[in-house]
Design goal:
heterodimer; A: alpha/beta; Glutaconate Coenzyme A-transferase; 2 domains; 8-stranded mixed β-sheet; 7-stranded parallel β-sheet; 25% helix; B: 422 residues; alpha/beta; Ribosomal Protein S5, domain 2; TIM Barrel; 8-stranded parallel barrel; 16 helices; 14 strands; 16% strand; disordered N terminus
Chain lengths: 522, 422
Amino acid sequence: MSKQDIKLVKNAAGRMVPEEINGEKQIPYQGVGKYIPEGRRFAPKLSSCANFPQDGNKTVKDLKEALIKSGLKDGMTISTHHHFRNGDLIANQIFDIAHELGIKDLRWYPSASFPCHEPLIKYLKDGTINRIEGSMNGALGKFASEGGMAGVGVLRSHGGRYQAVQDGEVQIDIAVIAAPTADAFGNANGVNGTAASGLLGFALADSQYADKVIVVTDNMVPFPCIPWQIHGNYVDYTVKVDIVGDPEKIISGTTNITKSPDRLLIAEKTAQFCEATEIIHDGFSYQAGAGGTSLSIGIYFEEILRRNNWKARFIRAGSNKYPVKMLEDGIVDYILDGQTFDLEGIRSMRENANHVDTSPFTSYNYHSKGNFASMIDIAVLGATEVDVNFNANVVTHSDGYLLHGIGGWQNCLFGKTVILPIPLFRDRIPVIIDKVTTLCGPGELIDVIVTERGVAVNPLRKDLIEKAKKAGFKLKTIEQLKAEAEEICGIPEKPELEDKVIAVIKWVDGTVIDSVRKVKTK
Amino acid sequence: MSDNYNSEIIISKSLSTMIENKKVGIGNQGKKIRSDIYIEIELTSSGGINLDLTSKVDIMFGKSNRALISDILSFYNIENANLLIIDKGALPLVIAARMEAAIHKLIDSDKEYLLPIIEANKSITKKDQMRFSRLYLPGNTPSMMLNAGIHNPNGIILDLEDAVAHDKKYEARFLVRNALRGINFYGAERMVRINQIPLGLQDLDFIIAHNVNLILVPKCESADQIKQVNKRIDELKTTHGIKEQIWLMPIIESALGIVKAYEIATAADNISSIAIGLEDYTADIGTLRTDDGDESFFARSMVVNACRAAGIQPIDSVFSDVSDMEALARNVRKSKSLGFDGMGCIHPRQIDVIHKNFAPEEKEITKAKKIYIAFMEAKKKGLGVISLGTKMIDAPVVKRAENTLNTAIDLGIISKDWMEKV
């Protein structure tokens, strides 16, 4: 196979990473907290009110006109956001228009991609889009993994995406913010409208730093659109469409905890571990996702809080009806919400001042004067693979294919205790292995692995090991867990990968922590 | 129902003697199927082995899976065949079971392709061991078997009877056999529910030599059925040189069975317990099963009485609403108060509730301790009569107190040396 001309160097994690991708020089990962940036934040061009309508009406005919007026041309960077998740209807339209106008070599900079974006493969093939810098899942992941993309993909955490924009590493030419509600001036929010999705935090950096900003909505209200999660003062054009997103795919009417007995067992063990080691206590805080296992861990945490007559100070979460109920029952003081997953979450955010919308800036940005992620007592996260050194992978499958985005995962690794509740194997695929296929998070930041067959604590966390022992909570070593998985599943063969780098994984500080190789296809 | 069973026997007999079909499909397939494999084999007369294998774990286990499949084919001297295989991440023991079932349907062979028995599955069990919970696992669903043991039931039941569709009963036997040998159930007693007698007698061929601890005999209505089961077990034990005791747990599920409860309970020495099956029983007496269970009070008491008279364990029916843990807890407490020693479960989340509610309560333990201490003191002093306060205590009461304390020790509620701490 064709070798790349680009030189690979070994970074501080021992991974081979390119020094340059897509014509841009890269900094190899140097270790946690080792790379300190210099210089100033990126600044967008100055604007003048003289160039904007004094009546505040920035509405143009349609998205096409907004894109043309924004100066859409070859090689530009176009950003979108995943508040609508799999119900996004706007990103595909942008590239339909670009294709119609014969535009080439665009860089798509979504905060995440979803299966609904599969139609974009044709534009990656015909050169309308050069590459995706954002998560690549499902069909897009397969396409990219098999070397289909012209440029090299870049995967960043939510915090890393903010950092890249703020630092000027990614300069957005046109940001298109699809909003559930907006006014003609460009003020926008996510809590009202039929496509209500909660908040618009992922679009914050784009609104602040992009050269041109377009707000698209199907619920155009007279000024002022309150709350204004996005400030119209950053916005160039507004567009009214018939439907901005598919509500059924944006939000679930109701969120339910997992019914899987195995996952419930993992959740229960996680909570038991937290109680035994006293990392759950009055006034504690935790981060939990909306996945089945995380959700049920929240339920067990709640049970512990109620039993002890304790309160949590805050939950940092993708919110849903369970934390909302805790907030309303007075078991938690605040929800610091990163994205909202059900109608109850949206209602609460609209009605309750203690249900606060956050952004990757406040929660995750590493090139900042601190962020919330590192203040969290317990961060409960997932992983596709973990190795015997506690390094973890969240983006690729053990067969080498890209299948998940990083999300806020890397950022949350800075929490005081990071716990990965994961099954020892999925179907027949062991989760704990010798060496992760793709390194996303260094083992020094990962403290506890909870599986259905036992709990392993990172030897660096002597304090947790001591406390667990004292409480009579049985631990296994990670090597024991790995051996157990292999006894059941067998020892998996390694995927055959080519030399070609199809994507890189950025660490929270913008350095390159690992490369994703092209998968060998038959 | 029994008509179908009979036709099943005829089918399997014809398959084991004369094979007419040249192509069979074994295993489960479909979008939701996990940890299983579908295998279609067509024997051909030339052209060698043509393997069309689709696997979701091909990159990780493709080589070893192909090697296993080809090893099994050559074990049965199959040189020409077309194979269509859809693998959903099946473990080797599942692949082997499916392959073997398919091959046995195509050729006449007595050979068994056996993977090694894991060390953990060589354990044996006691007649009176704790049987608070036993978890039913459908005998043809590998995904439910793999993690059953992690939920710590006292026993797991690989079910060949009601949980397996009629056309899957043949292949389930191979899977259950391999599960008995190769799946670690983490200390749970390994039980198999065979089919109703006489079909169930054939199931024994697949389990007796493979470290089964206990066999559930469904729809039991007579001592004769137990004798038939034991006769076949003894033959197989002799053939395979097996010394370990294999316990029986007859399940009574009919009015007639209830009437004959004592006869069944005393039919053989290796009967460790009798279970009652209330779904079928209530249907048989022409009523509906309720949460309160008034309709089955007589039957449950009959079973308890028969078992106590025979010195074995009475075991209660399953509770079928898996979402209502409160109702389950009430049901367990009722069951315990009627005199049962355990009950079945159909969902792993029920296990903990069953254990907690069958476990001796604090006041029970306190009382048992007092009785036991009084007994020991009386013994020390050489007194013939034991008394606690003004009450006389007789031998069965002491025995019950001892049982309560032993159970509490087993469950970790009190320590083994509690006497020293008094």
